[in-house]
Amino acid sequence: MNNPKRPKNTHAHYHAHIYFEEQTLLFAINLSEKIAQQFPLIVGRIHQKLVGPHTKWSFQVLFDHLAFDEFIAWLALNRGDLSVLVHAQTGDDLLDHTEHACWLGDSVAIDTSRF
C-alpha cells in the first residue's frame, strides 16, 4: 500500500479516473451507473483496454469545483477497493496527471511518455 496525495478542491474543473481490472469489472460498471443516477456529472465509457496515459482499465467522470466536495466524499465511501485518480483539468495534460494529481486509494502508474 502506498500513501498518495489526497484530493483537495483547488481548481475549477476536474477528471476522476476510476481504475479496475477484469475481476472488478462488474463493480466498476455498477459504480458508474450509480454515479450517473446520483449526480448530474458526465460519466465516460467503461474502457476494457488501456487509454491514453492510463496503465489500467478505467472510466472517467468530469466535474467542476462546485460538485467536488459532495462527489469526492461520496466516491471515497463507495469506490470499494478501486483506485481513483483525481486531477485538475487545466489544459496541461502532463501537469494535470502529475503535479495536479491526487488519489483515493493507492496510486496507479501513469505513462507520462504519452504527453
From TrEMBL:
Matches recorded under SUPFAM superfamilies: DOPA-like
Coiled coil: none
Organism: Psychromonas marina
Signal sequence range: none
Gene3D superfamilies in the record: DOPA-like domains (3.30.70.1240)
This protein's name: DOPA 4,5-dioxygenase
Cross-referenced Pfam families: DOPA_dioxygen (PF08883)
